[in-house]
Amino acid sequence: AAPTVPGYSPGFKKPPAMLRLKRKRLRKSDPVVAPPPPCGAAPRAPSAPARRNPFSSLDNAPRAAGTSRPREGVPRPPPPAGGSPSAAPFWQLLESVCEDKPARREEPSERTDILTLTDDLHLSVAVPKVPSSPRHEFPADWSVKTRLLFMSSQPFTWAEHLKAQEEAQGFAQHCRAIETNLPQSVQEPKLSTELRCAFQQSLVYWLHPSLPWLQLFPRIGADRKIAGKASPWSQDEALQQVLMSDWSVSFTSLYNLLKAKLCPYFYVCTYQFTVLFRAAGLAGSDIITAVISPTTRGLREAMRSEGIEFSLPLVEESRTRKQKNSEGNFETEVTNSLKVGNCMEDGQEPAPSDDDDESFSWLEEMGVQDKVKKPDTISIKLRKEKHEVQMDHKPESLALVRGTNTFTLLNFLINCKSIVAAAGPQAGLPPTLLSPVAFRGGTMQTLKARSINAKARVHLAYEDIFSLEVIGPVMPHSLHSLTMLLKSAQRGAFSAVLYTHEPTAVFNTSLDNANPALNKETIRKDLPTCGLHPKTLDQLSQCPTLGKDSIRFLEMKDYAYTWKS
């Protein structure tokens, strides 16, 4: 057998074994065997260099013991100052982390999470496109996040292993809408009971329906995750009617709370689209609003037939932009018209316009109007509606409903059978209701949070990065509440990677006729018991400024925010 070389561990197991078997056969078939060298004689140099294993990578090639492995194109981090023996294991760990290793079997979940976290940290180190100057508050983000990854140089031990009393106190503070005001910097976060209770309070949300064995958010594109799970209602119409009746009661309860300004907003998540209802005073609007995305031509026609008045803000914005561009080119058009007039004076004919192509009067002048088939009215209508059909399932299909039309939309969604899938894994399953406050039929749920420690490469060096991962439907108020807690606990220095549920990113579009100068005092008087912190309420009352995008990266330094969308 070939001698074992220290440090040689090929990524493939079978090809080297086949090569060893082949070498054994060659040695057995060779009749001439060289005698061993006499004692004391110098070893004979080989006539040809040893053949390298073709199945091994460059970093995995066999090498003699004691020799360093070459790394081309990647500078090795400098050794620690002084070269103390105690620092050797630390640098060996860094070397093992940063080297490119061949694919292996998956490690346990904790190790996989740490590697995934390291990848996220490498992505977040890149310089983001942030506003020119830091701000003390980041804009409101109305999209729903599926995962948050907070990172800081300070540990998150204060968020671990909450006591039963602290957990119960956090639930009580949420249900009673108790406002928690922390100092700018908490000296001992792990020992701060107020901080730990507020953290539990910020993780609470309300959900309907509650089926613990099913993941009810997100619903768009969730067939694979729901497939194979028990769904006794899929073939039972009576059970489907009971579920929809219960869902209608919960939906109506949420709308009544919204109308009474006891609920700031809530989401209705179907398997095809998502609806965001917002109370009056939020997002720069003084009346109730509802935004739907994505929509289809069939859904919009059904809403029109029910008498629901709505607008398409992004489509109207595109038309306004085109009109401004045409006004900007007015002088050019005037100049061109003068040139055309000069050409006509010289006896030349003007160039045909686009309107002339749509006219059929020239057929009559040629006398062939009966021989050429003209497009019928249906074809012309389909041609005009081509753009409307093309924007289906896209962010541009966002529909905005305002005022009393939201109540008509409520009745439409309750009676609309298409909001529930007729076939597939989600067949017969009512839409998901997400709310920051309690409502009839709602179930209290909490976001899953855990802390992870890892090493991240920052400027050719490795630093201990402490992270806090939050998984679940993170709504706008939860994001703002968590950042306020981290601002105090992490001493005004942390960063976050935000994972957005993409169909909801368009909810950051600015509303029509929004009032950016909405009086804050009026909002506080109108929404005193909606369950949100006053600072969170101030943020959500501002006009949306992110457009079709959402915040992907958020960073705080010296108590000032920068972000990337």
UniProtKB/TrEMBL annotation:
This is DONS protein. It is found in: Nucleus. The keyword rRNA-binding does not apply. Residues 41-54 have a biased composition (Low complexity). Keywords: Developmental protein, Nucleus. Its main location: nucleus. One of its GO terms (biological process) is nuclear DNA replication. One of its GO terms (cellular component) is nucleus. Residues 1-88 are annotated as: Disordered.
